[in-house]
Design brief:
Its main location: membrane. The chain has 532 residues and is α+β, with helices and mostly antiparallel strands. It has 16 helices and 13 strands. It starts with 22 loop residues before the first helix and ends with a helix. It binds 2-acetamido-2-deoxy-beta-D-glucopyranose (8 copies).
């Protein structure tokens, strides 16, 4: 591809480089540009050559991804040198003042020249989309005794951070570095005395969200690294930062944020053991409920389903956390898992509510428990309610804020309040349960006069359901407040993982009939042979 014959230069892409772009194509392009000896070029020619350089370097960026830092820096330097050389050909002698500016896909350029008879007191601020520069060009021109002229070239590179990575900023603190501005270059082309009369000031618009906990550094590029020497942050707010530097070169704004704290391996192991213990007891409780139909008057459906929902939820959560590194790259899978967790935990709560409602109905209709209940609240009907409510909440959440699923831990994202799609329904259910329990207690006290076996049995039942409610509901309330408190975190881990254990304790170990069933079972298992 031929660019231009004007002024006797022709920059061409090497043979075959349009089909397959290699590093050599770019090398060759650099060389051709370095070989240009003409002092002035038309703007259009410069734009075409720059486009060619940036298009070519963009194409080989992928093959550069495996390059060593030194190689990257070296390519970055050549892109900078090439651009600066081309920009200097735009400077033409002027008597008063003149300017040139253009915008390419990868680069924005402003050139301002002043001559011996400039009438301006101060040159206007040089602006590009995301950054601007204040420089005392008039003062610099006055310092050039011979020509009494000067020129400034201002370049803002849109994609340069791919080569001059923020990681090239080496600090004693091991922090995460983020490029907060476009990379800019300020040069004084064709100016003999480049000594600055005043510090040069840059205003950077943040191209990424500013983390209030981060620390900002104005840096300049010195051959192979970003360094701060001579640059400082003048002022900053959430969207802009003003930097001041006492020399010219290539600049950027880098934000340092502390690394995510190393996951606490002790706590992780403790959590793993706790969750596994909890899962074992969940399974035991589930088995017991399924095998022992001990109280015909009491419906087991709700309790079995609480166990199923929470067992699956805890199991899925455990597996997800163990294989997080494999799952996280698969955005969709991660989001689906967090949706499923949302559904399972929520249905656990809905079933808890159903259990309280069933108990309430029992207490209300003390006289006609067994006969009526079965028909009104058949298991099938309960299952529909127990799972459909949670499903509806998840579907609505997916419909409204689909991007709310799939956080770092494949759970619901906690920012922007999306977590309330879980906490909201949970709080409502907990509140309703509290109301129900108050009603149940009042009802039981009123019917105290009857003092029959039913009442005392219901009382124990109410106590147990209340205990279960506290055990299942508390961890989540606590979980919201664990912000970095070690003690609270440990309590949360214990309470949350031992839900299965508590349920097993309350309904199986502390239940006479179940204990008898167990005894029978053990006898059959271990002593059965002796009888024969
Ligand atoms: C640049 O110039 C040198 C000698 O001045 C020459 O050897 C080299 O081939 C030139 N490079 C290109 C790409 O034209
Ligand atoms: C470079 O790419 C842009 C679009 O990405 C295109 O408009 C332009 O023509 C290309 N320039 C050259 C010299 O290939
Ligand atoms: C840059 O800011 C400093 C401090 O506010 C000021 O002294 C200096 O004159 C400014 N430079 C320019 C070129 O405006
Ligand atoms: C970064 O600085 C540390 C000392 O502060 C030094 O040991 C290390 O070699 C430096 N790394 C690079 C890539 O310059
Ligand atoms: C590095 O860490 C020390 C203390 O750990 C802190 O005082 C200093 O400001 C940090 N430096 C940067 C550049 O963040
Ligand atoms: C300016 O910054 C915005 C982000 O704030 C970015 O999307 C845009 O591409 C940048 N434009 C240039 C020309 O650097
Ligand atoms: C780059 O840094 C070295 C020391 O760190 C210094 O001697 C040199 O002058 C710097 N170069 C430029 C262009 O600032
Ligand atoms: C932040 O600072 C910039 C430059 O100093 C200013 O233009 C902008 O209005 C400020 N923004 C806010 C939100 O204060």
């Amino acid at each position: 591809m031929l660019i231009s014959f004007i002024a006797g230069i022709n920059i061409t892409l090497q043979e075959g480089c349009t089909e397959q772009t290699t590093l050599e194509c770019l090398q060759n392009l650099f060389e051709q540009i370095e070989n240009i000896t003409v002092q002035e070029l038309p703007v259009n020619t410069v734009m075409d050559i720059l486009n060619m350089v940036f298009n070519t370097s963009e194409k080989i960026l992928e093959s550069l991804s495996s390059a060593s830092p030194a190689e990257l820096a070296s390519y970055g330097n050549r892109v900078l040198q090439t651009s600066e050389k081309l920009i200097s050909t735009l400077v033409k002698p002027t008597d008063t003042n003149d300017s040139v500016s253009f915008t390419l896909a990868a680069l924005e350029v402003e050139v301002f020249m002043v001559g011996p008879h400039v009438t301006l007191k101060k040159i206007p601020r040089l602006e590009t989309t995301n950054s601007s520069v204040d420089i005392d060009l008039i003062g610099i021109a006055k310092n050039n005794n011979l020509t009494r002229s000067a020129a400034v070239g201002f370049m803002s590179y849109v994609t340069m951070e791919n080569l001059l990575k923020p990681d090239f900023f080496n600090t004693s603190n091991d922090t995460v570095k983020t490029m907060m501005s476009t990379v800019i270059s300020v040069t004084l082309p064709k100016t003999t005395n480049t000594k600055l009369t005043k510090p040069v000031n840059f205003t950077f618009r943040h191209i990424r969200e500013f983390d209030p906990n981060g620390s900002l550094s104005c840096v300049y590029w010195n051959i192979s690294e970003w360094i701060v020497d001579g640059c400082s942050v003048l002022e900053t707010n959430s969207s802009h930062t003003v930097c001041s530097c006492v020399h010219l070169s290539t600049f950027a704004l880098i934000m340092q944020t502390s690394r995510a704290p190393e996951s606490d391996s002790q706590l992780d192991l403790f959590n793993l053991v706790c969750v596994i213990v909890g899962l074992v007891f969940f399974s035991l409780a589930l088995l017991t409920f399924a095998l022992c139909q001990w109280s015909p008057g009491v419906n087991n459906v709700a309790r079995i389903n609480i166990c199923i929902s929470l067992l699956l939820a805890h199991l899925l959560f455990l597996l997800t956390q163990q294989f997080l590194n494999l799952i996280r790259p698969q955005q969709v899978l991660c989001a689906v898992i967090s949706g499923l967790l949302h559904f399972l935990f929520l249905s656990g709560f809905v079933w808890m509510f159903i259990e309280a409602v069933l108990l309430f109905i029992c207490v209300k209709n003390l006289s006609k428990i067994s006969s009526k209940k079965r028909e009104v609240l058949s298991s099938g009907f309960l299952c529909v309610i127990g799972y459909v409510v949670a499903l509806v909440v998840v579907c609505v959440s997916v419909g409204l804020v689909p991007e709310g699923y799939g956080s770092e831990h494949c759970w619901i994202k906690t920012d922007k309040g999306f977590i309330w799609s879980f906490l909201g329904p949970v709080c409502i259910i907990l509140a309703l349960n509290v109301i129900l329990f108050i009603c149940i207690i009042i009802c039981l006290n009123l019917s105290l006069t009857k003092l029959n076996a039913d009442v005392s049995q219901l009382k124990t039942m109410a106590c147990k359901t209340l205990g279960q409610f506290v055990v299942l509901g508390c961890p989540w309330i606590l979980g919201v407040f664990t912000n970095n408190s070690k003690v609270l975190e440990v309590i949360f881990v214990i309470l949350n993982s031992q839900q299965g254990t508590f349920i097993f304790l309350i309904y199986c170990v502390l239940n006479n009939e179940v204990r008898q069933q167990y005894r029978k079972l053990f006898r059959r298992l271990f002593c059965g042979h002796k009888k024969h």
